[in-house]
Write a structure and sequence with these properties.
This protein has nine helices and 14 strands. The chain is of the alpha+beta class. The protein has two domains: 177 residues, Ribosomal Protein S5, domain 2, CATH 3.30.230.10; 140 residues, GHMP kinase, C-terminal domain (Alpha-Beta Plaits). The strands form three sheets. Strands 1, 4, 5, 6, 7, 8, 9 and 14 form an eight-stranded mixed β-sheet that branches. Helix 1 packs parallel to helix 2 and helix 5 packs antiparallel against helix 7. It is globular, with a radius of gyration of 19 Å. Bound molecules: ligand DP6. The site of ligand DP6 has 15 residues, from helix 4. GO terms for molecular function: ATP binding; diphosphomevalonate decarboxylase activity. InterPro entries: GHMP_kinase_C_sf, Mev_decarb, Mev_diP_decarb, MVD-like_N, Mvd1_C, Ribosomal_Su5_D2-typ_SF, Ribsml_uS5_D2-typ_fold_subgr. It is an enzyme of class 4 (lyase).
Length: 325
């Protein structure tokens, strides 16, 4: 059968997904909003081949077995089931999401895999169908199908839990400075972290309510190109997500002293009139939402707090592309 290659970009959540109403289908408890990023992406080629006796999976040219391989095989099984085929596949994936960027690669990885595998298996590559399928690999991957600002509608079943674009062409100044605190794999992966928070934080149901109540105002801030409003909501929602982890029993925490130094520096910059806002995911790295015109001022302030700081700049990026070959 023919090989298809898909390219999907990673995304940063401005309104977070942190908990599953259905862990089998990956239906979230909250509607989330993200920005797809241009600089970081995964490119994946898939070919179903009747002569294979098992799936062959390569990530950055290394053959993958064990748990990571199993996640891909489980995903391919879903595609085979939908396509009504039994052939195994060769999957070659190249990640252009450097660990040093401090961003997760599972979003771009499962979005690209959904695109390439669907095309190779001959099932629908309609973007909504791809978002629904990518979601089954990793929740945040549902958003990486689309470019720009994206909303993953929580929904209540497999059909309705899909992402959709809010604004695909971003013609106003917004960027993300990813500050690298650590490039080590996270201590608690997001899957078990969100499960713990959901189960053991007494504030969790209220966090879900507050997050879902922010969907409309955040959409409005995006429509109005209102960086200040958007940033404030994103920082608040991220801090409240991390508060859930600290309120779990036993409590756990992704943020280190260095993360807090950065968060405090960003808040200090705001008091000085610079529009900069922090967001953090399941790790210690801090991502700063800001206007590109303030980059120099922000980096200078960060360097005064943490001299050996490492950072990368990301700008809004496009949705998935799929091609034959
Ligand atoms: C903190 O999408 O990695 O980045 O669905 O279990 O694979 P699984 O989780 P994943 O979780 C992402 C969590 C987050 C927030 C977000 O991206 O919305």
């Amino acid at each position: 059968m023919t090989t298809y290659t898909a390219k999907a970009h990673t995304n940063i959540a401005l309104l977070k997904y942190w908990g599953k109403a259905d862990s089998q289908l990956i239906i979230p408890t909250t509607t989330s909003i993200s920005l797809t990023l241009d600089e970081f992406y995964t490119e994946t080629a898939v070919n179903f081949d009747a002569s294979l006796t098992s799936d062959d999976i390569y990530i950055n040219d290394d053959q993958i077995t064990g748990a990571a391989g199993q996640k891909v095989v489980t995903f391919l099984n879903l595609v085979r089931q939908q396509a009504n085929i039994t052939d195994f596949a060769v999957v070659r994936s190249n990640n252009h999401v450097p660990t040093a960027a401090g961003l997760a690669s599972s979003a771009s990885a499962f979005a690209a895999l959904a695109g390439a595998a669907s095309a190779a298996a001959g099932i629908s590559t309609d973007l909504t169908d791809l978002s629904r399928l990518a979601r089954r690999g990793s929740g945040s991957a549902s958003r990486s199908i689309f470019g720009g600002f994206v909303q993953w509608q929580r929904g209540n079943d497999d059909q309705s839990s899909v992402a959709e674009p809010i604004q695909q062409i971003i013609d106003w100044p917004i960027q993300l400075i990813t500050v690298v605190i650590s490039d080590q794999p996270k201590k608690i992966n997001s899957r078990s972290g969100m499960q713990n928070a959901m189960q053991f934080s007494p504030d969790y149901p209220a966090w879900v309510k507050r997050t879902n109540a922010m969907v409309q105002p955040m959409q409005q801030a995006i429509q109005n190109h209102d960086l200040e409003m958007l940033g404030h909501m994103a920082e608040r929602n991220a801090l409240e997500m991390h508060a859930q982890n600290m309120m779990a029993n036993p409590a756990f925490n992704y943020l280190t002293d260095r993360s807090w130094t950065i968060i405090n520096t960003v808040q200090k910059l705001r008091r000085e009139g610079i529009l900069a806002f922090s967001t953090m995911d399941a790790g210690p790295n801090v991502k700063i939402i800001s206007d590109p015109k303030d980059t120099e001022t922000i980096i200078h302030a960060l360097r005064s707090s943490v001299p050996d700081i490492q950072y990368q700049i990301a700008t809004p990026g496009p949705g998935i592309t799929i091609q034959q070959g």
